[in-house]
Structure formats: structure tokens, C-alpha cells
Amino acid sequence: MERFESANVLLRDIMPSDLEMLRQWRNDPAIRLNMCNNSEISTKQQLAWYTHISEQTKHKHFVAEYCNNAIGYVNLKLVNKGVYEAGLYMGEPKYRGSFLSFLMAMAQLDYAFDVLNANVIEAQVLISNQAAIRFNQKLGYQQKGLESGNYVDMKLQASWYTTQRQQLARFIR
Questions:
Q1: pLDDT, tens only, 56-76
Q2: Residues facing 83 on adjacent strands
Q3: I need a labelling partner for 35 at 20 to 30 A (CA). Which of 23, 66, 123, 124 fits?
Q4: What are phi and psi of 12, to 5 degrees?
């Protein structure tokens, strides 16, 4: 089982016992309506997804933990050599909008740049999700453009992230 800790957040492999929790989080309208695919996920679909991600090696999917409690989900999908697409959501409602979201994202990006040796991280955000666009910009992402008019394509280079991480790290204890 893979485990990676950074910014006070532990990223660990997803286990079968996590599936219902992840499905409940993913189906929460606050999360679901900001996803590219915003349909509800059935138990059967969740199990098929888990089977699929368990069989492939090019993508990374993690449960994020803080103080031994599961708080969210992060993924990194290999697009091209050195280029990954990042996705995450804060599952625990009490932490949404808190600085813990930044810690979770920092753990994800530290893993991408330090372990996977990524050169570039890409993110696709619904244009209507201005909070996520601002969040990504605070992490160092820059806007690449619009895709199909519904999404903002964003990109993050390691050097941009390093600069932003130094500023954000001041708040980590």
C-alpha cells in the first residue's frame, strides 16, 4: 500500500472499505455539481471504477487523511510523459473552504513533483466554479484557455508551484 505524507496530510491508496464513503462524498451535490460528469454514481458504478483504477498503473488515486481521519480524495492522471492532470475534492463538509483544502492540494502536488517527477500539472475546472479557479491560482496555476466554452484549462509548472508553496507553507504548523 502506497503512502505519502506532506503538509500534514497523508495520501494513501484507496481500499475497498473506502468505496462507500467516497461514493457518498462524490454524490454530495456540493461536489457532484462541480464535476465534469455530474451524474450520481451507483454502488455498482463505484465498484466498476475501483476495479478499473486497481488494474492500471498510469494514474494515482488516494484518500487524503488529516489527523487519522479521511477528509478527501485526490488523483493524478498521466497525460503525457511528465504531464499529469490533477483532481481533488474535500469530502468532509466541515473542512470545505478551510485552509485544509490547501494542505490536501499541497500534498498532492508535492507527490506529483517530488515522487512522480512531473514537469507540468494540468487541471480542468468548470468555468462556473470560480472558487476552484481562484484556489488553483493561489497554488500557482495559470489559465491556459477555454475548452468547449464550459471549462477553464489550467497549468502548473514546478517552478510556479515552488514559489507559491513557500508562501503557503508559512501557515503550516
A1: 999 999 999 999 999 999 999
A2: 80, 120
A3: 66
A4: -135, 155
